[in-house]
Automatic annotation (TrEMBL):
Gene expressing this chain: ruvC
Subunit structure: Homodimer which binds Holliday junction (HJ) DNA. The HJ becomes 2-fold symmetrical on binding to RuvC with unstacked arms; it has a different conformation from HJ DNA in complex with RuvA. In the full resolvosome a probable DNA-RuvA(4)-RuvB(12)-RuvC(2) complex forms which resolves the HJ.
Cited PROSITE patterns: RUVC
Any single biological process term in GO: DNA repair
NCBIfam families recorded: ruvC
Protein name (Swiss-Prot/TrEMBL): Crossover junction endodeoxyribonuclease RuvC
Catalytic residues as annotated in Swiss-Prot or TrEMBL: 8, 67, 139
UniProt keyword annotation of Hydrolase present: yes
Organism from which the protein derives: Acinetobacter tibetensis
InterPro entries xref list: RNaseH-like_sf (IPR012337), RNaseH_sf (IPR036397), X-over_junc_endoDNase_Mg_BS (IPR020563), X-over_junc_endoDNase_RuvC (IPR002176)
Length: 181
């Protein structure tokens, strides 16, 4: 069983979502947003770092997934988003969590089955996949989607590791049996 935190970084609202993965089952644990209500960028980054750190210390996730920055049309917005993302990642790494990174397209593909899905489609599928009675706020839903994407990806990677190990053992047996001949 693993506890996964997903982060949807933003300079004003940073979404977070935590799910539990037990085999193939996914269960909702918590979700919300870290609001940075300040005009001063260093203060916003401090709030993101402290907020992520507080949530991780409270819930104790074992895995983390963060959405990668997409290139926005406004370079200033892209820089601020990158800084917010960096503050969140620094908080996660500071607490010894390994961070997996996924593009928005990968997350949407994993959750909705369509890489260009809109926010409403992501919210709807998060509700369905986690059997929620209430639709989470868009940034929280995006963070839950990142966690779900990681749960799917880590499950696939685990299966591939087992198959690779089994393949290596089979290759080893065939080599040793051919040497005996």
């Amino acid at each position: 069983m693993s506890l996964i935190i997903g982060i949807d970084p933003g300079s004003r609202l940073t979404g977070y979502g935590i799910i539990e993965k037990d085999g193939q089952k996914l269960r909702f644990v918590d979700a919300g947003t870290i609001r940075t209500e300040s005009k001063d960028m260093p203060e916003r980054l401090k709030r993101i770092f402290a907020g992520v750190e507080r949530i991780v210390k409270f819930h104790g996730p074992t895995e983390a997934a963060v959405e990668q920055v997409f290139m926005a049309q406004n370079p200033d917005s892209a820089l601020k988003l990158g800084q917010a993302r960096g503050a969140a990642i620094a908080a996660l790494v500071n607490l010894d969590l390994q961070v997996a990174e996924y593009t928005a397209r990968q997350i949407k593909q994993s959750v909705v089955g369509y890489g260009a899905a809109d926010k409403e489609q992501v919210q709807m599928m998060v509700v369905k996949l986690l059997n929620l009675s209430v639709t989470p706020q868009a940034d929280a839903a995006d963070a839950l989607a990142a966690a779900i994407c990681h749960a799917h990806a880590s499950g696939t990677m685990s299966k591939l590791a087992v198959l690779n190990a089994l393949g290596g053992m089979a290759r080893g047996r065939s080599r040793s049996s051919s040497r005996r001949r």
